[in-house]
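Annex B.
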Amino acid sequence: MKTFSTLTNFIALAFLVPITSANVTPLQHRSLKTNLFPSGYTYASGFTTASGVSANGVTPVALSDSVLNVIKATSGLTHNVVSQNGKTAWEAVYPKGSYNPSGTPKGGFGFYLGGSDKFQTAVQGGAKQVIFGYSVMFQKGFQWNMGGKLPGGFGGIGDSAFGCSGGRQTDREECFDLRLMWRSNGKGELYDYLPLTSTNAKALSTVGPETILNSDYGYSVSRGSWTFPAGQWVTVAERIKMSDPHKANGEVQIWINGNSVINVKGLEFRNTTDSVIQGMHFQIFFGGSTSDWASPINQKAWFADVSGAVII
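Polysaccharide lyase 14 domain-containing protein: predicted structure tokens.
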């Protein structure tokens, strides 16, 4: 796999060039089961904290740090379990002026989630393709400012998989992080850290309605392909298909409320089978690394229906 130091001038020319396309069709709601576990796939070793969701190969579990193998939680922040609009959810609190986990005051929360024991064993044993899912609700009247981070899948080689964010430049071929973001006015996007290769840049640069390739930070992919409403539950599903070593046959697909909004193929994730999917990265904060990203008011968001499964 090519590293950042060997890239052609492609990224130098493209990393701040937006790609645009036509307006996106408004999203429609489907069943929660389909929203979390899109049809057309067979699932195994799965888990879900969603109430009343029954799917083959998926086991209901509690929304619990111990059950979901939560590790490396950011100190000084809480993710209390609350009841919110009919769901059991983790609550993110964003004090006015909060941004970035290193800022003051702190807001949101952060940790890595391995999933249920059975799921964690399956993915870290080398599962080729997985689905992750959750529901998110921003409080009514939420003020978006410039944007903030949302959960997504992550992986890599051992401990090198952790911290694949925040402008990381070293060992980028040993990790990947596929979180989402909200941007101004609730616009959604895939915010990815993948190995910095010309192949990945080329594959991602073609994705509309707007994509910005920033090699210093994560790539902003398909910004505005959906919009988060305030005061309503929205369900996210993310499919990750690992590439073979040294091959550009990886894929990432995003569904919002059961509607496929992003489907990128031809990606390079790894140059060794030691690099594997490890779980979900929950990193929930306003930012950006500067105070102009900060939450304008005291406000909250909630995360429920946390799910994952191996696709077989």
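The first helix runs from residue 9 to 14. The helical segments are 9-14, 32-36, 117-124, 198-205. Further annotation is deferred to the next reporting cycle.
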